[in-house]
Amino acid sequence: MTNQEIIQPENLVYKKPTLLNDNPMHYCPGCSHSVVHKLIAEIIEEMNIVDKTIAICPVGCAVFACNYIDIDWIEAAHGRATAVAGASKRLWPDRLVFTYQGDGDLACIGTAETIHSMNRGDNIAIIFINNAIYGMTGGQMAPTTLMGMKTSTCPYGRQADLHGFPLKITEIAATLEGTCYVTRQSVHNVASIRRTKAAIRKAFENSLQGKGTSLVEVVSTCSAGWKMSPVAANKWMEENMFPYYNLGDLKDNSM
Amino acid sequence: MADKNDIILMKGNEAIAHAAIRCGCDGFFGYPITPQSEILETLALEKPWETTGMVVLQAESEVASINMVYGGGATGKRVMTSSSSPGVALMQEGISYMACAEIPGLIVNVQRGGPGLGTIQPSQSDYIQCTRGGGNGDYNVIVLAPASVQEMADFVDLSFTLAFRYRTPVIMLSDGVIGQMMEKVVLPPFKPRRTEEEVRKECPWATVGRKNRKNNILTSLDFDPYNMERHNQDLQRKYKEIMQKEVRFEEEQTEDADYLIVAFGSAARISQKAIELCRKEGIKMGMLRPITLWPFPTERIKELSRKVKGIISIEINAGQMIFDIQNAVEGRVSVKHYGRMGGVVPTPDEIVNALKSNLINELG
Question: How confident is the model over A200-218, as pLDDT tens digits?
Protein backbone atom coordinates (compact mmCIF):
# COMPACT_ATOMS: atom_id res chain seq x y z
CA MET A 1 0.00 0.00 0.00
CA THR A 2 1.41 3.40 -0.97
CA ASN A 3 1.15 6.52 1.19
CA GLN A 4 -1.37 7.97 -1.28
CA GLU A 5 -3.58 4.91 -0.84
CA ILE A 6 -3.27 4.99 2.93
CA ILE A 7 -4.49 8.58 3.26
CA GLN A 8 -7.67 7.94 1.26
CA PRO A 9 -10.75 9.02 3.32
CA GLU A 10 -12.13 5.45 3.41
CA ASN A 11 -9.03 4.36 5.34
CA LEU A 12 -9.43 7.05 7.99
CA VAL A 13 -9.73 5.54 11.44
CA TYR A 14 -8.73 8.50 13.61
CA LYS A 15 -8.23 12.23 13.20
CA LYS A 16 -7.62 15.38 15.14
CA PRO A 17 -10.93 16.90 16.20
CA THR A 18 -11.86 19.84 13.95
CA LEU A 19 -12.29 22.11 16.97
CA LEU A 20 -8.65 21.60 17.97
CA ASN A 21 -6.77 24.20 15.93
CA ASP A 22 -3.20 24.03 14.64
CA ASN A 23 -1.60 26.36 17.21
CA PRO A 24 1.42 24.59 18.73
CA MET A 25 0.53 23.74 22.33
CA HIS A 26 2.73 25.19 25.06
CA TYR A 27 2.17 22.17 27.30
CA CYS A 28 5.19 20.08 28.28
CA PRO A 29 5.68 16.53 26.98
CA GLY A 30 3.73 14.14 29.17
CA CYS A 31 1.33 16.79 30.49
CA SER A 32 -2.28 15.69 30.89
CA HIS A 33 -3.76 19.02 29.70
CA SER A 34 -3.40 18.29 25.99
CA VAL A 35 -5.25 14.97 26.30
CA VAL A 36 -8.14 16.59 28.17
CA HIS A 37 -8.22 19.44 25.63
CA LYS A 38 -8.55 16.91 22.84
CA LEU A 39 -11.42 15.17 24.65
CA ILE A 40 -13.28 18.44 25.15
CA ALA A 41 -12.88 19.35 21.48
CA GLU A 42 -14.12 15.89 20.44
CA ILE A 43 -17.14 16.00 22.74
CA ILE A 44 -18.32 19.47 21.69
CA GLU A 45 -17.93 18.44 18.05
CA GLU A 46 -19.84 15.21 18.61
CA MET A 47 -22.61 17.01 20.49
CA ASN A 48 -22.69 19.67 17.72
CA ILE A 49 -23.05 22.55 20.17
CA VAL A 50 -20.27 25.00 19.22
CA ASP A 51 -22.81 27.82 18.87
CA LYS A 52 -24.14 27.03 22.33
CA THR A 53 -20.85 26.64 24.20
CA ILE A 54 -19.30 29.19 26.56
CA ALA A 55 -16.01 28.12 28.14
CA ILE A 56 -14.09 29.71 30.98
CA CYS A 57 -10.36 29.19 31.34
CA PRO A 58 -8.39 29.79 34.53
CA VAL A 59 -5.12 31.28 35.64
CA GLY A 60 -2.39 28.66 35.47
CA CYS A 61 -1.08 26.57 32.59
CA ALA A 62 -4.56 26.27 31.09
CA VAL A 63 -4.88 30.06 30.84
CA PHE A 64 -4.04 29.43 27.17
CA ALA A 65 -6.67 26.74 26.64
CA CYS A 66 -8.46 29.44 24.65
CA ASN A 67 -5.66 29.33 22.07
CA TYR A 68 -6.29 25.69 21.17
CA ILE A 69 -10.02 24.97 21.09
CA ASP A 70 -12.10 26.95 18.57
CA ILE A 71 -14.97 27.91 20.86
CA ASP A 72 -15.89 31.12 22.70
CA TRP A 73 -13.72 31.61 25.79
CA ILE A 74 -13.69 33.93 28.76
CA GLU A 75 -10.42 34.06 30.67
CA ALA A 76 -11.24 34.47 34.37
CA ALA A 77 -9.23 35.98 37.19
CA HIS A 78 -7.37 33.48 39.38
CA GLY A 79 -9.91 31.25 41.13
CA ARG A 80 -13.00 33.08 39.92
CA ALA A 81 -13.98 30.84 37.00
CA THR A 82 -17.09 29.34 38.61
CA ALA A 83 -18.45 32.80 39.48
CA VAL A 84 -17.95 33.87 35.87
CA ALA A 85 -19.48 30.61 34.62
CA GLY A 86 -22.41 30.50 37.04
CA ALA A 87 -23.54 34.00 36.07
CA SER A 88 -23.09 33.30 32.34
CA LYS A 89 -25.22 30.18 32.64
CA ARG A 90 -27.99 31.95 34.55
CA LEU A 91 -28.05 34.64 31.88
CA TRP A 92 -27.88 32.10 29.01
CA PRO A 93 -29.80 29.11 30.39
CA ASP A 94 -29.73 27.09 27.15
CA ARG A 95 -25.93 27.14 26.87
CA LEU A 96 -23.30 24.62 27.80
CA VAL A 97 -21.13 26.54 30.23
CA PHE A 98 -18.01 24.89 31.58
CA THR A 99 -14.90 25.90 33.47
CA TYR A 100 -11.47 24.37 33.09
CA GLN A 101 -9.37 24.86 36.22
CA GLY A 102 -6.28 23.61 37.97
CA ASP A 103 -5.85 22.70 41.63
CA GLY A 104 -4.36 26.01 42.74
CA ASP A 105 -7.08 27.93 40.95
CA LEU A 106 -10.06 25.82 42.01
CA ALA A 107 -9.05 24.44 45.40
CA CYS A 108 -6.93 27.25 46.84
CA ILE A 109 -7.47 30.85 45.77
CA GLY A 110 -10.92 30.07 44.36
CA THR A 111 -12.20 27.80 47.14
CA ALA A 112 -15.03 30.16 48.12
CA GLU A 113 -16.24 30.63 44.54
CA THR A 114 -15.96 26.90 43.83
CA ILE A 115 -17.86 25.76 46.93
CA HIS A 116 -20.62 28.34 46.65
CA SER A 117 -21.15 27.84 42.94
CA MET A 118 -21.52 24.09 43.51
CA ASN A 119 -23.69 24.68 46.58
CA ARG A 120 -26.03 26.89 44.54
CA GLY A 121 -26.16 24.12 42.00
CA ASP A 122 -25.05 26.40 39.16
CA ASN A 123 -25.81 24.38 36.03
CA ILE A 124 -22.22 24.29 34.89
CA ALA A 125 -19.59 21.63 34.28
CA ILE A 126 -16.25 21.99 36.07
CA ILE A 127 -13.21 20.24 34.62
CA PHE A 128 -10.66 20.09 37.42
CA ILE A 129 -7.07 19.22 36.56
CA ASN A 130 -5.33 18.05 39.74
CA ASN A 131 -1.58 17.63 39.28
CA ALA A 132 -0.72 18.47 42.89
CA ILE A 133 1.49 21.40 41.92
CA TYR A 134 1.51 24.93 40.49
CA GLY A 135 2.73 24.28 36.97
CA MET A 136 2.88 27.63 35.24
CA THR A 137 4.61 29.51 38.06
CA GLY A 138 7.30 26.85 38.20
CA GLY A 139 6.42 24.04 40.57
CA GLN A 140 5.23 25.51 43.88
CA MET A 141 3.16 23.73 46.53
CA ALA A 142 -0.53 23.33 45.72
CA PRO A 143 -3.45 22.62 48.07
CA THR A 144 -3.38 19.09 46.66
CA THR A 145 0.38 18.49 47.02
CA LEU A 146 0.83 15.11 48.70
CA MET A 147 2.40 14.71 52.17
CA GLY A 148 6.16 14.60 51.90
CA MET A 149 6.10 15.69 48.27
CA LYS A 150 8.81 18.20 47.41
CA THR A 151 8.06 21.42 45.56
CA SER A 152 9.94 24.70 45.21
CA THR A 153 8.06 26.19 48.18
CA CYS A 154 8.23 23.05 50.32
CA PRO A 155 11.71 21.92 49.23
CA TYR A 156 12.00 19.53 52.20
CA GLY A 157 8.63 17.99 51.54
CA ARG A 158 5.07 18.89 52.56
CA GLN A 159 4.65 18.57 56.31
CA ALA A 160 1.37 18.73 58.20
CA ASP A 161 2.27 21.22 60.94
CA LEU A 162 3.49 23.79 58.45
CA HIS A 163 1.48 23.15 55.30
CA GLY A 164 -1.62 21.31 56.37
CA PHE A 165 -3.01 18.36 54.47
CA PRO A 166 -3.73 17.73 50.78
CA LEU A 167 -7.26 18.99 50.19
CA LYS A 168 -9.83 16.54 48.83
CA ILE A 169 -12.17 19.17 47.44
CA THR A 170 -13.89 16.63 45.22
CA GLU A 171 -15.00 14.71 48.33
CA ILE A 172 -16.34 18.00 49.72
CA ALA A 173 -18.15 18.63 46.43
CA ALA A 174 -19.92 15.30 46.70
CA THR A 175 -21.48 16.34 50.04
CA LEU A 176 -23.07 19.47 48.57
CA GLU A 177 -26.76 19.37 47.64
CA GLY A 178 -26.14 21.45 44.51
CA THR A 179 -23.89 18.94 42.75
CA CYS A 180 -25.47 16.30 40.54
CA TYR A 181 -22.38 14.49 39.33
CA VAL A 182 -18.97 14.27 40.99
CA THR A 183 -16.29 12.00 39.65
CA ARG A 184 -12.52 11.54 39.73
CA GLN A 185 -10.80 10.23 36.61
CA SER A 186 -7.39 10.15 34.93
CA VAL A 187 -5.95 10.13 31.42
CA HIS A 188 -2.85 7.97 31.89
CA ASN A 189 -3.85 5.13 29.56
CA VAL A 190 -6.36 4.42 26.81
CA ALA A 191 -8.99 2.93 29.11
CA SER A 192 -8.84 5.87 31.52
CA ILE A 193 -8.98 8.38 28.65
CA ARG A 194 -12.19 6.71 27.45
CA ARG A 195 -13.69 6.84 30.95
CA THR A 196 -12.77 10.52 31.28
CA LYS A 197 -14.34 11.26 27.92
CA ALA A 198 -17.58 9.64 29.03
CA ALA A 199 -17.45 11.57 32.30
CA ILE A 200 -16.93 14.96 30.60
CA ARG A 201 -19.70 14.20 28.12
CA LYS A 202 -22.06 13.41 30.99
CA ALA A 203 -21.04 16.64 32.77
CA PHE A 204 -21.70 18.65 29.58
CA GLU A 205 -25.10 17.05 29.11
CA ASN A 206 -25.96 17.81 32.74
CA SER A 207 -25.11 21.48 32.15
CA LEU A 208 -27.29 21.65 29.05
CA GLN A 209 -30.14 19.90 30.82
CA GLY A 210 -29.84 22.06 33.94
CA LYS A 211 -29.37 19.21 36.40
CA GLY A 212 -26.97 21.00 38.76
CA THR A 213 -23.22 21.28 39.03
CA SER A 214 -20.98 18.53 37.65
CA LEU A 215 -17.38 18.22 38.78
CA VAL A 216 -14.96 16.05 36.83
CA GLU A 217 -11.58 15.87 38.55
CA VAL A 218 -8.80 14.54 36.35
CA VAL A 219 -5.82 13.35 38.40
CA SER A 220 -3.00 14.53 36.20
CA THR A 221 0.73 14.57 35.70
CA CYS A 222 3.03 17.56 35.67
CA SER A 223 6.23 15.94 34.48
CA ALA A 224 8.10 19.25 34.35
CA GLY A 225 6.92 20.37 37.78
CA TRP A 226 7.55 16.96 39.26
CA LYS A 227 10.93 16.88 37.48
CA MET A 228 10.31 13.46 35.94
CA SER A 229 10.18 11.99 32.47
CA PRO A 230 6.64 11.58 31.11
CA VAL A 231 6.76 7.81 31.67
CA ALA A 232 8.13 8.15 35.21
CA ALA A 233 5.49 10.80 35.98
CA ASN A 234 2.70 8.46 34.90
CA LYS A 235 4.12 5.69 37.10
CA TRP A 236 4.59 8.07 40.05
CA MET A 237 1.00 9.22 39.68
CA GLU A 238 -0.30 5.66 39.71
CA GLU A 239 1.78 4.76 42.77
CA ASN A 240 1.32 7.94 44.81
CA MET A 241 -1.62 10.01 43.60
CA PHE A 242 -4.21 7.26 43.02
CA PRO A 243 -3.96 5.78 46.55
CA TYR A 244 -4.80 9.22 48.01
CA TYR A 245 -7.08 10.50 45.25
CA ASN A 246 -9.16 7.39 44.59
CA LEU A 247 -10.56 7.15 41.07
CA GLY A 248 -14.23 6.63 40.31
CA ASP A 249 -17.65 8.26 40.73
CA LEU A 250 -18.26 9.90 44.10
CA LYS A 251 -21.82 10.92 43.30
CA ASP A 252 -24.20 10.58 40.38
CA ASN A 253 -27.72 11.94 40.71
CA SER A 254 -27.92 12.85 37.05
CA MET A 255 -29.69 9.66 35.89
CA MET B 1 -45.66 63.58 31.05
CA ALA B 2 -44.93 60.53 33.11
CA ASP B 3 -47.73 58.27 34.24
CA LYS B 4 -48.64 59.23 37.80
CA ASN B 5 -47.89 55.68 38.86
CA ASP B 6 -44.31 56.27 37.78
CA ILE B 7 -43.84 59.20 40.20
CA ILE B 8 -42.95 57.76 43.57
CA LEU B 9 -41.40 58.80 46.85
CA MET B 10 -38.52 56.43 47.51
CA LYS B 11 -34.94 55.98 48.67
CA GLY B 12 -32.05 56.40 46.26
CA ASN B 13 -31.14 52.74 46.69
CA GLU B 14 -34.69 51.64 45.87
CA ALA B 15 -34.71 53.92 42.82
CA ILE B 16 -31.64 52.12 41.45
CA ALA B 17 -33.37 48.75 41.80
CA HIS B 18 -36.56 49.90 40.07
CA ALA B 19 -34.62 51.68 37.34
CA ALA B 20 -32.58 48.54 36.68
CA ILE B 21 -35.71 46.42 36.20
CA ARG B 22 -37.22 49.05 33.90
CA CYS B 23 -34.19 49.73 31.72
CA GLY B 24 -33.74 46.18 30.45
CA CYS B 25 -31.03 45.13 32.89
CA ASP B 26 -30.32 41.41 32.53
CA GLY B 27 -28.80 40.65 35.89
CA PHE B 28 -27.84 41.90 39.32
CA PHE B 29 -25.23 40.15 41.47
CA GLY B 30 -24.52 41.54 44.91
CA TYR B 31 -23.57 40.99 48.51
CA PRO B 32 -25.18 42.78 51.48
CA ILE B 33 -23.40 45.76 52.98
CA THR B 34 -24.71 48.91 54.67
CA PRO B 35 -25.70 51.49 53.42
CA GLN B 36 -26.75 49.94 50.10
CA SER B 37 -28.50 46.67 51.01
CA GLU B 38 -31.90 48.03 49.90
CA ILE B 39 -30.83 47.62 46.28
CA LEU B 40 -30.59 43.83 46.55
CA GLU B 41 -33.53 43.71 48.97
CA THR B 42 -35.78 45.70 46.64
CA LEU B 43 -34.84 43.53 43.69
CA ALA B 44 -35.48 40.36 45.69
CA LEU B 45 -38.91 41.69 46.71
CA GLU B 46 -39.81 42.78 43.17
CA LYS B 47 -38.74 39.37 41.72
CA PRO B 48 -38.12 40.66 38.19
CA TRP B 49 -37.16 37.13 37.06
CA GLU B 50 -40.92 36.52 36.84
CA THR B 51 -41.59 39.64 34.77
CA THR B 52 -38.66 40.90 32.69
CA GLY B 53 -36.55 37.78 33.18
CA MET B 54 -33.84 39.71 34.98
CA VAL B 55 -31.56 37.49 37.09
CA VAL B 56 -31.08 38.56 40.72
CA LEU B 57 -28.51 36.66 42.75
CA GLN B 58 -26.98 37.12 46.18
CA ALA B 59 -23.33 36.17 45.77
CA GLU B 60 -21.02 34.76 48.44
CA SER B 61 -18.80 37.85 48.40
CA GLU B 62 -18.06 41.04 46.53
CA VAL B 63 -15.22 39.17 44.84
CA ALA B 64 -17.73 36.70 43.43
CA SER B 65 -20.22 39.49 42.57
CA ILE B 66 -17.81 41.38 40.37
CA ASN B 67 -16.72 38.19 38.62
CA MET B 68 -20.37 37.38 37.95
CA VAL B 69 -20.60 40.83 36.38
CA TYR B 70 -17.44 39.97 34.42
CA GLY B 71 -19.11 36.82 33.09
CA GLY B 72 -22.42 38.53 32.36
CA GLY B 73 -20.79 41.46 30.57
CA ALA B 74 -18.54 39.11 28.60
CA THR B 75 -21.64 37.37 27.26
CA GLY B 76 -23.11 40.69 26.14
CA LYS B 77 -25.62 41.07 28.95
CA ARG B 78 -26.42 44.31 30.75
CA VAL B 79 -25.43 43.34 34.28
CA MET B 80 -24.59 45.19 37.44
CA THR B 81 -23.55 44.93 41.05
CA SER B 82 -23.68 47.33 43.95
CA SER B 83 -21.75 47.65 47.17
CA SER B 84 -20.26 50.14 49.56
CA SER B 85 -16.66 51.20 50.01
CA PRO B 86 -15.06 48.14 51.74
CA GLY B 87 -16.90 45.87 49.31
CA VAL B 88 -15.87 47.92 46.30
CA ALA B 89 -12.26 47.67 47.49
CA LEU B 90 -12.64 43.89 47.20
CA MET B 91 -13.95 44.27 43.65
CA GLN B 92 -10.94 46.12 42.31
CA GLU B 93 -9.30 42.98 40.89
CA GLY B 94 -12.39 42.23 38.84
CA ILE B 95 -12.80 45.82 37.67
CA SER B 96 -9.19 45.87 36.48
CA TYR B 97 -9.75 42.62 34.55
CA MET B 98 -12.94 44.05 33.03
CA ALA B 99 -11.09 47.20 31.94
CA CYS B 100 -8.36 45.17 30.25
CA ALA B 101 -10.64 42.60 28.62
CA GLU B 102 -12.98 45.49 27.68
CA ILE B 103 -16.04 44.04 29.34
CA PRO B 104 -18.97 46.37 30.02
CA GLY B 105 -20.76 46.43 33.35
CA LEU B 106 -22.12 48.69 36.07
CA ILE B 107 -20.77 48.94 39.61
CA VAL B 108 -22.70 51.10 42.08
CA ASN B 109 -20.68 52.35 45.06
CA VAL B 110 -22.87 53.79 47.83
CA GLN B 111 -19.89 55.11 49.75
CA ARG B 112 -19.39 54.94 53.50
CA GLY B 113 -16.61 56.30 55.67
CA GLY B 114 -13.23 54.58 55.86
CA PRO B 115 -10.50 53.50 55.95
CA GLY B 116 -11.02 49.88 56.94
CA LEU B 117 -14.47 49.00 58.15
CA GLY B 118 -14.88 52.73 58.87
CA THR B 119 -18.44 53.82 59.49
CA ILE B 120 -21.77 53.01 57.92
CA GLN B 121 -22.49 56.71 57.34
CA PRO B 122 -21.89 58.60 54.09
CA SER B 123 -18.53 59.60 52.73
CA GLN B 124 -16.87 60.55 49.46
CA SER B 125 -13.48 59.13 50.31
CA ASP B 126 -13.36 56.66 47.39
CA TYR B 127 -12.97 59.52 44.88
CA ILE B 128 -9.32 58.89 44.12
CA GLN B 129 -9.75 55.11 44.05
CA CYS B 130 -12.59 55.30 41.52
CA THR B 131 -11.27 58.09 39.30
CA ARG B 132 -7.79 56.54 39.00
CA GLY B 133 -8.95 53.09 38.03
CA GLY B 134 -8.60 51.51 41.45
CA GLY B 135 -6.99 48.19 40.64
CA ASN B 136 -3.66 47.25 39.08
CA GLY B 137 -2.54 48.69 35.78
CA ASP B 138 -3.10 51.82 33.69
CA TYR B 139 -6.81 52.19 33.20
CA ASN B 140 -9.80 54.38 33.88
CA VAL B 141 -13.45 53.67 34.32
CA ILE B 142 -16.26 56.12 33.65
CA VAL B 143 -17.48 57.48 37.00
CA LEU B 144 -20.94 59.05 37.30
CA ALA B 145 -21.84 60.92 40.49
CA PRO B 146 -25.59 61.15 41.15
CA ALA B 147 -26.70 64.00 43.41
CA SER B 148 -30.38 63.10 43.77
CA VAL B 149 -32.69 60.11 43.91
CA GLN B 150 -33.79 61.08 40.40
CA GLU B 151 -30.24 60.78 39.14
CA MET B 152 -29.84 57.43 40.93
CA ALA B 153 -32.67 56.23 38.69
CA ASP B 154 -31.60 58.02 35.50
CA PHE B 155 -27.95 57.05 35.64
CA VAL B 156 -28.59 53.30 35.56
CA ASP B 157 -29.61 53.29 31.91
CA LEU B 158 -27.02 55.95 31.08
CA SER B 159 -24.33 53.79 32.68
CA PHE B 160 -25.26 50.78 30.58
CA THR B 161 -25.31 52.91 27.42
CA LEU B 162 -21.83 54.24 28.13
CA ALA B 163 -20.53 50.85 29.30
CA PHE B 164 -21.52 49.18 26.01
CA ARG B 165 -20.60 52.17 23.80
CA TYR B 166 -17.02 52.02 25.07
CA ARG B 167 -16.82 48.43 26.33
CA THR B 168 -15.81 49.57 29.79
CA PRO B 169 -16.91 49.21 33.39
CA VAL B 170 -18.89 52.21 34.65
CA ILE B 171 -19.06 53.19 38.31
CA MET B 172 -21.95 55.10 39.81
CA LEU B 173 -20.25 56.80 42.75
CA SER B 174 -23.02 57.57 45.19
CA ASP B 175 -22.93 57.78 48.98
CA GLY B 176 -24.95 56.95 52.06
CA VAL B 177 -26.88 60.24 51.88
CA ILE B 178 -28.12 59.79 48.31
CA GLY B 179 -28.68 56.07 48.87
CA GLN B 180 -30.73 56.45 52.03
CA MET B 181 -32.64 59.70 51.53
CA MET B 182 -36.16 59.70 50.12
CA GLU B 183 -37.18 62.02 47.32
CA LYS B 184 -39.79 62.16 44.62
CA VAL B 185 -38.59 60.28 41.57
CA VAL B 186 -39.97 59.76 38.08
CA LEU B 187 -39.09 56.21 37.17
CA PRO B 188 -37.95 55.55 33.60
CA PRO B 189 -40.33 53.81 31.17
CA PHE B 190 -40.05 50.04 30.72
CA LYS B 191 -37.73 48.91 27.97
CA PRO B 192 -37.34 45.26 26.96
CA ARG B 193 -34.19 43.23 27.59
CA ARG B 194 -32.13 42.53 24.49
CA THR B 195 -32.83 39.36 22.57
CA GLU B 196 -30.10 36.91 21.55
CA GLU B 197 -30.21 38.28 17.99
CA GLU B 198 -29.76 41.82 19.29
CA VAL B 199 -26.86 40.80 21.53
CA ARG B 200 -25.15 38.98 18.64
CA LYS B 201 -25.65 42.00 16.37
CA GLU B 202 -24.75 44.77 18.83
CA CYS B 203 -21.95 42.90 20.62
CA PRO B 204 -20.08 40.91 17.96
CA TRP B 205 -17.26 40.49 20.49
CA ALA B 206 -19.45 38.77 23.11
CA THR B 207 -18.76 35.16 24.08
CA VAL B 208 -22.23 33.74 23.52
CA GLY B 209 -21.25 30.68 21.46
CA ARG B 210 -19.40 30.73 18.13
CA LYS B 211 -21.77 31.03 15.16
CA ASN B 212 -20.85 32.22 11.65
CA ARG B 213 -17.71 33.92 12.90
CA LYS B 214 -14.29 33.24 14.41
CA ASN B 215 -14.29 32.24 18.05
CA ASN B 216 -14.31 35.11 20.54
CA ILE B 217 -11.76 35.15 23.33
CA LEU B 218 -12.07 37.69 26.13
CA THR B 219 -8.87 37.83 28.11
CA SER B 220 -6.68 40.32 29.93
CA LEU B 221 -3.49 38.34 29.36
CA ASP B 222 -0.86 38.67 26.66
CA PHE B 223 2.57 37.18 27.22
CA ASP B 224 4.02 39.14 24.31
CA PRO B 225 4.99 42.50 25.85
CA TYR B 226 4.76 44.26 22.50
CA ASN B 227 1.21 43.02 21.93
CA MET B 228 0.34 44.01 25.48
CA GLU B 229 1.78 47.47 24.95
CA ARG B 230 -0.27 47.84 21.77
CA HIS B 231 -3.38 46.82 23.70
CA ASN B 232 -2.57 49.35 26.42
CA GLN B 233 -2.12 52.05 23.77
CA ASP B 234 -5.51 51.15 22.29
CA LEU B 235 -7.05 51.46 25.75
CA GLN B 236 -5.41 54.86 26.23
CA ARG B 237 -6.80 56.01 22.85
CA LYS B 238 -10.25 54.92 24.00
CA TYR B 239 -9.85 56.83 27.28
CA LYS B 240 -8.85 59.93 25.33
CA GLU B 241 -11.99 59.63 23.23
CA ILE B 242 -14.11 59.31 26.38
CA MET B 243 -12.40 62.40 27.82
CA GLN B 244 -13.31 64.31 24.67
CA LYS B 245 -16.90 63.16 24.32
CA GLU B 246 -18.37 62.20 27.67
CA VAL B 247 -17.64 65.02 30.14
CA ARG B 248 -20.82 65.91 32.02
CA PHE B 249 -21.38 68.65 34.58
CA GLU B 250 -23.94 71.15 35.80
CA GLU B 251 -23.48 74.80 36.72
CA GLU B 252 -25.36 76.93 39.19
CA GLN B 253 -25.12 80.74 39.23
CA THR B 254 -21.69 80.79 37.66
CA GLU B 255 -22.55 83.68 35.28
CA ASP B 256 -21.70 86.43 37.76
CA ALA B 257 -19.81 84.38 40.37
CA ASP B 258 -16.80 85.84 42.16
CA TYR B 259 -16.15 82.57 43.93
CA LEU B 260 -16.74 79.02 42.79
CA ILE B 261 -17.63 75.89 44.70
CA VAL B 262 -16.78 72.60 43.02
CA ALA B 263 -18.70 69.74 44.62
CA PHE B 264 -20.31 66.47 43.55
CA GLY B 265 -23.00 64.17 44.91
CA SER B 266 -24.36 64.91 48.36
CA ALA B 267 -21.69 67.58 48.98
CA ALA B 268 -23.15 69.45 45.99
CA ARG B 269 -26.62 69.23 47.51
CA ILE B 270 -25.39 70.73 50.78
CA SER B 271 -23.43 73.35 48.85
CA GLN B 272 -26.61 74.49 47.06
CA LYS B 273 -27.91 75.72 50.40
CA ALA B 274 -24.55 77.33 51.17
CA ILE B 275 -24.76 79.29 47.90
CA GLU B 276 -28.22 80.49 48.87
CA LEU B 277 -26.90 81.71 52.24
CA CYS B 278 -23.90 83.40 50.57
CA ARG B 279 -26.06 85.20 48.01
CA LYS B 280 -28.27 86.55 50.85
CA GLU B 281 -25.15 88.09 52.34
CA GLY B 282 -24.19 89.56 48.96
CA ILE B 283 -21.37 87.12 48.25
CA LYS B 284 -21.55 86.12 44.59
CA MET B 285 -21.07 82.40 44.91
CA GLY B 286 -21.57 79.84 42.14
CA MET B 287 -21.06 76.11 41.77
CA LEU B 288 -19.84 73.64 39.22
CA ARG B 289 -21.03 70.11 39.91
CA PRO B 290 -19.10 67.44 38.03
CA ILE B 291 -21.50 64.67 36.99
CA THR B 292 -18.72 62.63 35.47
CA LEU B 293 -15.84 62.49 37.95
CA TRP B 294 -13.88 60.69 35.27
CA PRO B 295 -13.70 62.15 32.71
CA PHE B 296 -13.37 65.29 34.84
CA PRO B 297 -14.66 68.68 33.56
CA THR B 298 -11.12 70.03 33.41
CA GLU B 299 -11.66 72.39 30.46
CA ARG B 300 -14.71 74.09 31.94
CA ILE B 301 -13.03 74.60 35.31
CA LYS B 302 -10.04 76.02 33.47
CA GLU B 303 -12.35 78.56 31.76
CA LEU B 304 -14.08 79.47 35.01
CA SER B 305 -10.75 79.90 36.79
CA ARG B 306 -10.10 82.84 34.46
CA LYS B 307 -13.26 84.59 35.69
CA VAL B 308 -13.45 83.91 39.45
CA LYS B 309 -11.30 85.12 42.34
CA GLY B 310 -11.02 81.75 44.07
CA ILE B 311 -12.31 78.18 44.09
CA ILE B 312 -13.20 75.90 46.98
CA SER B 313 -13.64 72.16 46.73
CA ILE B 314 -16.32 70.88 49.07
CA GLU B 315 -15.90 67.17 49.65
CA ILE B 316 -16.84 64.66 52.32
CA ASN B 317 -13.23 63.50 52.62
CA ALA B 318 -9.78 64.86 53.43
CA GLY B 319 -9.42 66.54 50.02
CA GLN B 320 -9.27 64.31 46.97
CA MET B 321 -11.03 66.04 44.06
CA ILE B 322 -9.02 69.17 44.87
CA PHE B 323 -6.07 67.68 42.97
CA ASP B 324 -8.14 67.50 39.77
CA ILE B 325 -9.29 71.09 40.29
CA GLN B 326 -5.72 72.29 40.88
CA ASN B 327 -4.69 70.45 37.74
CA ALA B 328 -7.35 72.37 35.78
CA VAL B 329 -6.65 75.74 37.40
CA GLU B 330 -2.88 75.57 36.88
CA GLY B 331 -2.22 78.06 39.65
CA ARG B 332 -4.32 80.89 38.19
CA VAL B 333 -6.40 81.35 41.35
CA SER B 334 -6.37 80.03 44.90
CA VAL B 335 -7.96 76.58 45.30
CA LYS B 336 -8.98 75.51 48.81
CA HIS B 337 -10.65 72.47 50.27
CA TYR B 338 -13.23 72.10 52.98
CA GLY B 339 -14.61 68.78 54.06
CA ARG B 340 -15.58 66.53 56.91
CA MET B 341 -14.04 63.09 57.15
CA GLY B 342 -17.09 61.05 56.25
CA GLY B 343 -19.62 59.63 58.65
CA VAL B 344 -19.91 63.30 59.60
CA VAL B 345 -21.12 65.54 56.77
CA PRO B 346 -20.63 69.33 56.58
CA THR B 347 -23.58 71.68 57.22
CA PRO B 348 -24.35 74.63 54.91
CA ASP B 349 -23.28 77.04 57.68
CA GLU B 350 -19.97 75.29 58.07
CA ILE B 351 -19.42 75.60 54.34
CA VAL B 352 -20.22 79.32 54.37
CA ASN B 353 -17.82 79.85 57.29
CA ALA B 354 -15.13 77.84 55.51
CA LEU B 355 -15.66 79.90 52.35
CA LYS B 356 -15.15 83.08 54.32
CA SER B 357 -12.20 82.02 56.43
CA ASN B 358 -10.35 79.78 53.97
CA LEU B 359 -10.98 81.65 50.74
CA ILE B 360 -12.59 85.08 50.86
CA ASN B 361 -10.79 86.55 53.90
CA GLU B 362 -7.50 85.12 52.77
CA LEU B 363 -7.82 86.78 49.39
CA GLY B 364 -8.80 90.04 51.09
Answer: 999 999 999 999 999 999 9
